Amino acid sequence: MIDLKQLQVWFVTGSQDLYGEETLQQVAAHAEEIAQYLSTHESTPIQVTYKPIVKNSEEIYDTIVAANADAHCIGIITWMHTFSPAKMWIRGLKALQKPLLHLHTQYNRDIPWSSMDMDFMNLNQSAHGDREFGHIVTRLNINRKVVTGHWQDEEVLERINVWARAAAAWHDWQGAKFVRFGDNMRYVAVTDGDKVEAETKFGFSVNTYPIGDLVAVINQTSEEEINTLLAEYETIYELADDVKAGGAQRHSLVEAAKIEIGLRKFLEQGNFKGFTDTFEDLHGMVQLPGLAVQRLMAEGYGFAGEGDWKTPALVRACKVMGVGLPGTTAFMEDYTYNFDPDNALVLGSHMLEVDAALAKGKARIEVHPLGIGGKADPARLVFNGISGPALNASLVDLGTRFRLIVNKVEGVEVENELPKLPVARVLWKPLPDMKTGCSAWIYAGGAHHTAYSLSLTPEYLEDFAKIANIEYVAIDENTNLSTFENELKWSELYYLLKK
Known about the structure:
Elements: E1 8-14, H1 21-40, E2 47-50, H2 57-69, E3 73-80, H3 90-95, E4 100-104, H4 118-123, H5 126-139, E5 145-148, H6 154-173, E6 177-181, H7 195-202, E7 205-209, H8 211-218, H9 223-236, E8 238-239, H10 250-269, E9 274-277, H11 291-298, E10 302-305, H12 310-321, E11 329-338, E12 345-348, E13 364-367, E14 379-382, E15 388-397, E16 402-412, E17 426-430, H13 434-444, E18 449-453, H14 458-468, E19 471-475, H15 481-498
Parallel strand pairs: 1-2, 1-3, 3-4, 4-5, 6-7, 6-9, 8-13, 9-10, 16-19
Antiparallel strand pairs: 11-12, 11-18, 12-17, 13-14, 15-16, 15-18, 16-17
């Protein structure tokens, strides 16, 4: 569903007409070699496309405008092989509409002590050429990522790839559509927000469809389609005895399959990348979607419950960033705490809808009553989540701006039996510790719904926030509450002055 290899980052190298033809040919050859190396490296998620070197204002402007117009171009990497006077870049940079990474590198890794002459010095001027370029980008107040080091350095490659994945997620948001079945859960603040401002700021749209429109598609599902999907369930998952063929709850699984088929058709027909629903608006549906939501998220769709439209967009962005990486990203909710001083933990879950890709081992399909929503007992996948370094991310609307909050956490094994909790569940330890992490989250205004990711590090989200030009708040092993509160105040002042 998500294919990053169709996307390109343009590699644009700066120089100037002052240099002779021989020097410029060497600049072009080096730039093409670097672009080719980056593009073909096994870790690179996208294509890195060499573009002819730019030597004057017209070439710079034309290249950047072409990048803006190219549907496959998700951003540009700039490098100044020689000195490239920065006033030449002003018009082009002011026109730039794609994410920017400034690679501060040079062709040679080491100084050739015994052979270095003035011709070498004339050709290899990145050390001061990149500073000239960096000055004008700062003066123009353009967000970018700066990566410093030799282009064959594995750490440099990794930092470029993080940015490229963030740029891909931003590209995926442009023109994306998210569907909201029904409205927001009544009286809830944090899951709501300004959808017009979000579309203006982020490029994706959120529109409401009545649940009846979905029900109409669900009701067109054929018996053959249902039987095919039931057979798939029986192959992939463990089934509780009462949902197997002939079991007392088999009809609930049949209904869940019917919902999944209809929901998938609705999303595909509308070209939606994510959705939200609410248990307060299920008119015409037999049960609240559980199994269907879990499986669709595992395929790459964004989701959150209760009418929360910001979190499906964030989950989708994280899924794009994480394509091909170990782990996954899921819709999550902090449900309850273990305040044991020696083993403080957060239990994450939701009523039904936790991404099936989080399951450790084979998930189990079960049907149980749900004491909310007033509908028939829904089917769901029950499992314990995988463990490992992770993060929780929340996108909130503060009225004056959007804020992206990220807390580093450590996912841990679920060791206790939970025989009476028939939902998917995940455990984690917030950093730097339970009390500090949770308090900082509340000070920052973070939501109870999050994107929980075991495939991403905070650097991905920080790069994404820079591209989106929104506030980024980090809660990690270095967080101190007194300092953190002050930083929030300073940030508030910064964005008020900026606005």
